[in-house]
Every structure is written in structure tokens, then in C-alpha cells.
Write a structure and sequence with these properties.
This protein is of the alpha+beta class and 91 residues long. It is built from three helices and four strands. The protein has one domain: Alpha-Beta Plaits (2-Layer Sandwich), CATH 3.30.70. This is YCII-related domain-containing protein. Belongs to the YciI family. Pfam families: YCII (PF03795).
Length: 91
């Protein structure tokens, strides 16, 4: 099955929104069971400012659908989201 990368950039000034929706996001990740790797992107101050998520799903539409249902997305956290097929080579 292919892997898909989601590169998500938070809206400026959205750190508190991220923090208040983080538990729901982590619960969604655990419940869906298709996240191969994930973690926050950090800004220059070391604060969370986005997300990098690698999904193990059948196709890009499934990746986009997963992303659309993520509590972060539903809360309006992201300024931009890029979804692209990703090929694991190392690790």
C-alpha cells in the first residue's frame, strides 16, 4: 500500500487552538490506525506550528478524506495543507 504525506501549516497565532484540540487529534490518530508516522513542526521558538503526518492508506483520496476529518482541520487550525504520495526509502 502506498504512503501519503500531509504537510500542514498552522494559521498564524493558532498555538492555543492547537493545544486545545490536541487530545482530540491524538485520539483520532489512535482510533483510525492508519498513521505510520507523525509529529508537529516547530517554529523558531520551538513551539508547535504545523504537522507532518505519513498515512498508510489506499490512495490520495483516502488521505485527503482522513485529513478533512482530523479534529485539527475541523477546528480550522491549518492555513495550508499539502497531500502527496511519499516513498519510504530509509528507516
Amino acid at each position: 500500500m502506498p504512503l501519503y504525506m500531509m504537510l500542514c501549516t498552522d494559521k498564524p497565532g493558532a498555538l492555543e487552538l492547537r493545544k486545545t484540540t490536541r487530545e482530540a487529534h491524538l485520539s483520532y490518530v489512535a482510533q483510525t490506525g492508519c498513521v505510520a508516522q507523525a509529529g508537529p513542526l516547530l517554529d523558531d521558538a520551538g513551539e508547535m506550528a504545523g504537522s507532518l503526518i505519513v498515512l498508510d492508506v489506499p490512495d490520495i483520496e483516502a488521505a485527503k478524506q482522513w485529513g478533512a476529518q482530523d479534529p485539527y482541520a475541523l477546528a480550522g487550525l491549518f492555513e495550508a495543507v499539502r497531500v502527496q504520495e511519499w516513498k519510504k526509502v530509509i528507516g
